[in-house]
Design goal:
The protein contains 8 helices and 8 strands, in the order βαβαβαβαββαβαβαα. It has helices spanning 18-27, 50-58, 77-83, 98-107, 153-167, 181-190, 199-202, 207-215; strands at 5-8, 32-38, 63-69, 87-91, 111-116, 134-138, 172-176, 194-197. Strands 1-8-7-6-5-4-3-2 form an 8-stranded parallel beta sheet. α6 (181-190) links the parallel β7 (172-176) and β8. α2 packs parallel to α3 and α6 (181-190) packs parallel to α8 (207-215). The longest helix has 15 residues, at 153-167. Bound molecules: D-xylitol-5-phosphate and zinc ion. Zinc ion (ZN) binds next to β2.
Length: 217
Amino acid sequence: MSKVIIAPSILAANFLELGKDIEMLNQSKAEWIHIDVMDGMFVPNISFGFPILEAVRSITAKVCDVHLMVQQPERYFTEFKKAGADAISIHYEGNIHLHRCIQEIKSLGMKAGVVLNPHTSVAVLHDILMELDYVLLMSVNPGYGGQKFIETTVVKTKELKTLLTSKGAKALIQIDGGVTPANAKALIDAGADVLVAGSAVFKSPDPLATIEQMLNS
Ligand code: DX5
Ligand code: ZN
């Protein structure tokens, strides 16, 4: 059984009690904390930005994994680094200087990932795979938590795993959206390394047990 990383998305946390939710994650077996930043332009929704990341960073040693759903994300790499980001993922869609952006993220000392929307083929990654620390496959359309998992993501995960293996690429495969204990095993079997889960963790009556359940899928 390969070791999977669980990355709870704080988009589904209780913002009135964010400190308590982060303390709970600190006690958990989740290794990453997923931070969804939305600008109301790249996606219809607006979430949160630097102050929330800074606050989270101040009370956790977990990997702070920032998923940027914003236009021209390169405007903010330095600031996210200062706010405490360990890893930044940016979308393939609409980014005409993806290669340069990835180099910039890495040169700031962070892990760099590329995100694909559900309609984007893994084939587009062919010429950038070797540069990446991780690839995030969206298993819902980005913008909102609590959506239904798109089942074809399992096959897409296998396709990506095959592509990575064929090129000898070391990038991790991260899956984001509608991930639950019910679909975790299929994703891990398909090759997923990092599972993002918002609602499944924070709406669970026992988040620690849910994280562990996904980990042991
Ligand atoms: C969606 C975000 C996801 C979301 C996942 O745009 O990228 O990270 O928070 O939430 P759940 O697990 O509730 O689908
Ligand atoms: Zn996300």
